[in-house]
Amino acid sequence: xxxxxxxxxxxxxxxxxxxxxxxxxxxxxxxxxxxxxxxxxxxxxxxxxxxxxxxxxxxxxxxxxxxxxxxxxxxxxxxxxxxxxxxxxxxxxxxxxxxxxxxxxxxxxxxxxxxxxxxxxxxxxxxxxxxxxxxxxxxxxxxxxxxxxxxxxxxxxxxxxxxxxxxxxxxxxxxxxxxxxxxxxxxxxxxxxxxxxxxxxxxxxxxxxxxxxxxxxxxxxxxxxxxxxxxxxxxxxxxxxxxxxxxxxxxxxxxxxxxxxxxxxxxxxxxxxxxxxxxxxxxxxxxxxxxxxxxxxxxxxxxxxxxxxxxxxxxxxxxxxxxxxxxxxxxxxxxxxxxxxxxxxxxxxxxxxxxxxxxxxxxxxxxxxxxxxxxxxxxxxxxxxxxxxxxxxxxxxxxxxxxxxxxxxxxxxxxxxxxxxxxxxxxxxxxxxxxxxxxxxxxxxxxxxxxxxxxxxxxxxxxxxxxxxxxxxxxxxxxxxxxxx
Length: 485
Prior knowledge:
Layout lengths: L2 H11 L4 E2 L4 H9 L3 E4 L10 E7 L3 H8 E2 L8 E8 L6 E10 L10 E7 L3 H12 L3 E2 L4 H8 L5 H11 L4 H11 L2 H25 L9 H19 L2 H9 L1 E7 L5 H9 L17 E7 L2 E7 L9 H16 L2 E7 L6 H10 L4 E6 L20 E3 L8 H11 L16 H22 L4 H19 L2 E2 L1 H8 L7
Parallel strand pairs: 1-15, 2-8, 9-11, 9-12, 12-13, 13-14
Antiparallel strand pairs: 2-3, 3-7, 4-5, 5-6, 6-7, 10-11
């Protein structure tokens, strides 16, 4: 089959989306429409009451009928009760439920069958192997969602929202992902792209039919471009929030031994994550806790106290502490408020002052804290007083962290738009192209020059929703999905 025929097939299947690169993975998926199968639920030994095996494709129903024995009627969007049986040995593999969803009313807009089996490992793996033995192929990561996209059920922002929802680490991140699935970002982007297309049509009409149309109203065009630029800039402003919701923050607690680092971690996480004793060097390895601060997932690392180690094990812990501090997004330099700033704190501060950091003055419940020398610490460095053993000062610490990352409390009310890095990159190119159109307009250059940058902006906006796409872009997006989604 020649390349021209393959392109024609792709454009037809993907609802006139513009596919600019070809390759075997997507072409095979589109032309052959193999039936794919995968385990669609997390499989943990001796845990999980239900496991789902999902089939999608032209022969999904045929394969299911070969494996599933039921006295019920096979109707779309109905649940059947029965037994999964090996057709070669007639041995019953599992007692299960079957859910049939006929095209186009399914996740992929293909025939989809789901076996709801008993959980664990053995049952679902046996069912999956039976599906493959009957002609299905093991699905690649994200292939079910890829088919939903190629069949026009989802656009790229909705597909990415699904991945974000699966990986959400906080309720706020889940709300932002759900907003993407519901098409809130799609609506805004397509509106901007539509207005760009309107401007392009007006400009090209003046180029092709200059003698038959009145002159272009440049003032109106300028106003339209300014409005589109403002909308794109507004969407771009959510990139930082989106990154925080998805990736979260890594926070390292560092300091000398016995300054209260482990007590701080325990008070913050509201559980005894780290062992606390009066003996220096108790913490010898990294202790981790997962928290949510203002809707942002936070990974907190309690590190070994940094000092001249007395044995090799403690020295290894100190080296890990130093590595953790360098790899953290924020460093909490913890100081014993009853002792104050010393040469050791000054040394630690020199190592971490190039990173976002907060000084935590701990043990303030034991007496007035000793002031920090202004020569050692910049005046704008946030200083938080805590009494970790009493669980005090945690709210102030969280507020300081949120201020440091320049964000407000992320609530469901303001997570309607939270773009990811890929979307931000495309929107940045669209914004630059639109600014160049403005510059071209003000320089009174010929209309032909306007169209170049307008087309670049339209193309970049189309990449966000998938109306403009390449195979490499699709591979990159869907390879991050889990198998079975």
